[in-house]
Structures are given as structure tokens and as C-alpha cells.
Amino acid sequence: MASLCFALALGTKSSAGFLVLAVGIFFVYLSYKYKNYKNILKFIGFGAVNFLAFSAYNYVLNYLDFKNIFGFHGALISHKNIYGFKGFCANLIKHMWLLFDFSGVNWENPVGEFILHTKQNLLTALNLQGVPDGVYSPAKYQNVLNNTLAESLTGCGLLGFLLFLPCLIISLVKPIFKRNKKTILNRFFAILFVIAFVTMSASIAFMVFNVRFINCFIFVSAPIFALSYITSNKNIFKWLIILIACFYFLCVSTHLWSRPFNKIFPAFIKNPTKISELQNMMDCINWDSKEPNNDETCRAQALIEYNFNDKNNRIVFFPNSPEPILRFLLMNLRGYNIDIKSIEESAQEDFDKYNIVIAPNNWQYLNFYKTPITKARNKDYNCMYRRVDYEIVPTDLANDHTYTSLCKFTETFSEKYKFEEVTSFNDITEKIRYVFYVNRRNLPHTNRIN
Questions:
Q1: By three-state DSSP, how is residue 450 classified?
Q2: Less Cβ around it within 10 Å: N or C end of the chain?
Q3: E strand or H helix at 317, and its extent?
Q4: Cβ 408 vs Cβ 343: under 8 Å
């Protein structure tokens, strides 16, 4: 069963890839210790069969689509640690500090300031302060301690540093002074975490969203929590941990920002619907104010459904992130015809077939969207490429760097294709305006223009 689960994980979860080395060492040690190599061979053989049967299709699709079994080359560049050993050391420190997580509580001050200063002082002392975070790490989340209930940023909360970190240290140190079967087994689960943690830090750039990988490593090494077992009911620390665990189980889990159970469940009771429809609906609702979200995807969908809801319309959308793809694919399943494009790849596009074009009024920011780059300038659009340190990359060198593609249509674009602006909206940052254009040579099927 373990072999089957690991084979499935290798085809579906990135975190499983970081565990390959750790799990391999763990099984080799067990085989050597108990002089039983048949079980490891069975594990590998059964796992290989299940991997080929159930998980390999993702790698096959990657190769067919991107000529690389691991995925799109641009995405691989964006996640890769490009700073070598120096980057590894910086990533190791930054990832370790993700264990100091205050999800759901506002207790990070003043201790939070001390924790952050300690990290910065350590990076500076080792001359690592110049290693930047990965490009997918939003600036507002850099060098801060998480106290939000955003799922993509949430770690193990207070238990990460109050419970797991002490158990990890004890598991590694205790066998030095007291060797028995339990301490040795706990140490190997701790080493499992350390190897996976080191593998991740060496392989990919630091991003705050990497906390999801750390959560996975913690779950795999969970047996070390046995060291936290306290028999005495008079121990205050025991009751503190129990209270914190109950708080996260009962309160935090039901108040996650993206899907607050305490607000969604009453809405579901009043109006029972399919879970998929509820998920689609709640993504575009602020559950505190009951008002629509300012997210550009939701606003674009609302405008399309109200103004251009005729299913005969052909629509092309040039977003600033990949977020709209799933939502608009779901709309296509309902009969809409919406294409998601990048300006950089629109040189050969036949815009006459579209009734509606939705595009940013300025630059379209896309990370590593096209590799290799074939053109930087076109009569319909201009592009430039920016590295993670915000330096502009020459077009002929862009493939060798982690870069962001910035493209925008020229002023003559709308004139050439006879596009006329009819409405617009701002994105969630209120800094980028998306414009709805209608094709005067192929007018949309609608009676409403707002």
C-alpha cells in the first residue's frame, strides 16, 4: 500500500519529488539493518508498475506538450535555484523561518520583530542578503511572518515552532545520549524531514508558498511527535498544546478566508446546490461583506455574462496571470467561446474572428510564458524582458535568465483591427485597467453595453 501511495504521489504532487532521496535512504537503511533486501525490491517493483499505470501519463503529457517530462521549460526556470551554493544556504535559512508561523493569531509582535531581525542578521552575517526570493513571492509577503488565514500561506501555526521544532531537535540529539529502538527510529524520521528539507532548498528558489512542501515533510515525519507525549496532567505545557490544537481544529479550519465554513454552510442550507457550483460561486464572493470580489477574473466573468452572454460570441482574453484559465474553461463548458492568450504570441493571431477582445490598457505581465523567445518587437505589440532583480534582459540572452515578460499592444493595434473600447474595469490592485473592445467588423451578439 505504501508503494502504491508513493507511486501515485510521484505523478500528482511536487512534494513527493523532494522525498525520493530521503525515502530511498530510509529503505536502504532498513534493508541493511534487517538484512532483508527482498522487501525493498518488491517496493520498487510494485511502485514502478503502479507509476507506469496510474502516474506516468502526466509526464507523457508534459513531453507531448512541452518536450520535457517535468513540464514547461519557462516554469522550470522560474522555480529553479539559480544562485548555486549561496542560493542554497539562503533558501535553507528562509525556509527554516517559515516554521515560525502565526496563522490565525496576532501574537507576532513584539516577538515577530525579533524573529525577523534574527533572520536578517543571520543572512547578513553570512553575506546572503543579496540572494532574492523567487519571482512568485509577492513583495508584500517578503520578510513578514504569516498571521493570515490564506491557505497558500498557512503553515503549522504556533505548533510549528512550539511543538514540531523542539521534537525535531530532540529526535536528532537524543540518540547521542540514549540509544534504543525508539530513539533511533525517531531520529530516522527526523533525518527524513531534514533530507527532504535540504533537497528542496537546494533545488528551488525560496517562495513563501513553499510552506506547502514543508507541511508535507512534517506530515511524513509525524512519528517524532511521540516525543511530545506528557503523561502528567499537571503539566501546563501539555494543556497549552492541547488548547492550541483544538483552536486550529475547531476555529481556524472553519474560518479560512477562501472558504469560510461558518459562512458557506448556512448559505448552502438555505440554497442547496452542487458543490462544484458552490465552489465557483464562493470564489467571487467576499464572505464578510457579501459583495463581489474585486478579482479581475470574477469581474471579467460578470461583465461577459451580463453584457455579452450570447454563446455565439468569440472572446479572447489577455490576462496578467494564469488564474482565469480554469474559470473560463468552466464557462466554455457552459457554451461560451473564450480563448486565453498572451500578447507575446499574438503575432499570427487572426483577430477578425473575435467579436470581443479583453486586454490590459498597459503592460501584460507574465512570468516565463514563452521559451525560447523568437521576437521582441512586432508592429502590433512591444515586449521587454525583466530579470528577478528588475534588470532588463537583452532579447538574445533572455533564455538564460529567470525573467518576466512585459508586453503591450501598440496604439495602432485597435485602429488596424477596427476595435472600439466599450467598457473597462480595474484589477484587484486598482493599478491595471482591463479594456473590453468590440470588433466593428464583427460585432458581438448583445443588446446591453454598460
A1: coil
A2: N
A3: strand 314-317
A4: yes
392 DSSP β-pair partners: 386
Other residues' Cβ atoms within 10 Å of the Cβ of residue 371: 16
Paired with 340 in beta bridges are 317
**Percent helix, strand and coil across the chain, each rounded to 5?**
55, 10, 35
Segment 423-439, tens digit of pLDDT:
887 766 666 788 888 88
Let me know: does 418 contact 441? Beta carbons within 8 Å: yes
Once rounded to an integer, what is the mean pLDDT over residues 316-328?
77
Cell of 243: 488548547
How far is residue 291's CA from residue 284's CA, in Å, rounded to a whole number?
Answer: 9
Amino acid (one-letter) located at 246: C
CA-based angle 62:66:72, to the nearest 5?
85
- Contact between 406 and 427 under an 8 Å Cβ cutoff? The reply is no
CA-CA-CA-CA dihedral for 186, 189, 190, 193, to nearest 10 = -170
In this prediction, residue 121 carries a pLDDT of 93
pLDDT over 70 percentage in the chain: 84
Provide CB contacts within 8 A for 245, sequence distance 6+: 159
Distance CA 230, CA 239 (A): 10
User: DSSP assignment, residue 52?
Assistant: I
96-107 tens-digit pLDDT: 999 999 988 876
DSSP string for residues in 374-430: --SB-SSEEEEEEETTSPEEPGGGGGGS-EEEEEEE-TTHHHHHTEEEEEEEE-TTS
More confident site: 235 or 404: 235
3-state SS, residue 316: strand
Cell numbers linked to 258: 477562501
pTM of the model: 0.78
